[in-house]
Design brief:
heterodimer, A: 121 residues, 6-stranded parallel beta barrel, B: 221 residues, alpha/beta, Rossmann fold, 6-stranded mixed sheet
Chain lengths: 121, 221
């Protein structure tokens, strides 16, 4: 699947290796290697098919096509595409998992107070 | 004479068929799920969106851990002094089922003991005893002696309080492409005494017989 087409986003290509803390005020597409922590409180993170993340993630929405090893805390939603390999705990309002995705860890659906009931899809 | 054009040239990849079965054991577990809040459920089958939806929709926490897939990791296999391949159960438990003691209210073993490597079965059950809360439920499925070695290995999706959808499981051998996926082979058929021995450290055991060649076993920690 290609990188997001709409809106502005930062792009980390598949040859890039980053160790440390990543934070930002825009959507982020990661197709490389990131080790550490990723924090995009009001924005989205997409892990591309070549992405290899060893980090705890905080974001509004997280879409995973590659590998992620760490905790995921998404205030709105998480999507695991069929090529996703996720090891770690996921906390979110909604989660969508495609057939073929692999998850080893906890899923905790946290419903935000005053909003419609969240669920797994 | 052909009346219909063959669609074989436009067919996509084969979609694994799903079968349905009613589960008395799952019905008992659903009663527990409906009566309490915020339970911790461990699903030891393949990642299932349906199961995650079912358990989290009731307000519980769902843990997924595909132990059958993990047990097939070639890194677990070593050779003993006689050159025989052995599976390292210590390494297996160092990397899997790592949870605090008395953590889970419900454990769904599905058909794992029937298909898992012999040397891993008892250590896995012992570990489950440790990570389950007293009074917790464990559901496991065992083939009856009518099952042959080529019995299809299924994964189970919970679709309703006592209904399961069964989907064939296939894994590619290590290092081989996805096109060479094979169904895991049934390793053994437990008789009732074997099953009782396997769960001897648990407080109670209940058997449910079904019309298919499956025994459902519900044990209480």
């Amino acid at each position: 699947m290609d990188a997001p087409q709409t809106g502005e986003f930062a792009h980390i290509g598949k040859s890039v290796v980053i160790k440390g803390e990543l934070s930002g005020s825009e959507d982020l597409y990661v197709d490389g290697n990131v080790e550490g922590k990723i924090e995009l409180r009001n924005y989205s993170l997409t892990v591309g098919p070549n992405g290899n993340i060893k980090a705890d993630v905080i974001a509004k929405a997280v879409v995973i096509q590659g590998k992620l090893d760490g905790t995921v805390n998404a205030s709105e939603r998480v999507e695991l595409r069929k090529s996703a390999v996720v090891t770690g705990d996921v906390t979110t309002q909604r989660i969508a998992i495609e057939e073929g995705a692999f998850l080893k860890g906890k899923v905790d659906i946290q419903k935000e107070a005053g909003k419609a009931t969240g669920s797994a899809t | 004479m052909k009346f219909f054009r063959s669609s074989s040239n436009t067919a996509g990849p084969a979609v694994p068929q799903k079968l349905s079965r009613r589960s008395s054991g799952m019905g008992e577990i659903s009663r527990l799920l409906n009566s309490q809040e915020a339970l911790c459920v461990l699903d030891m089958g393949a990642t299932s969106a349906s199961n995650i939806r079912f358990f989290t929709g009731k307000g519980h926490k769902n843990y997924s851990e595909d132990l059958l897939r993990s047990s097939l990791d070639p890194a677990l296999r070593t050779q003993d002094s006689a050159g025989n391949t052995v599976v390292d159960s210590k390494k297996f438990l160092d990397e899997n089922l790592v949870y605090p003691n008395a953590h889970f209210d419900v454990v769904l073993c599905w058909n794992l003991p029937d298909y898992m490597e012999e040397s891993l079965v008892k250590p896995t059950i012992d570990r489950l005893w440790s990570v389950m809360k007293p009074g917790g439920f464990l559901l496991a499925f065992f083939h009856t002696r009518d099952a042959g070695p080529d019995s299809t290995c299924y994964r189970y999706h919970v679709t309703d309080t006592d209904m399961l959808e069964m989907q064939e499981v296939k894994f590619a051998p290590p290092g081989r492409p996805a096109s060479e996926k094979q169904s895991p082979r049934l390793q053994r058929v437990f008789n009732n005494r074997h099953i009782e021995n396997l769960f001897r450290d648990f407080s109670s055991i209940k058997f449910f017989l079904a019309r298919d060649a499956i025994r459902e076993v519900l044990v209480v920690r």
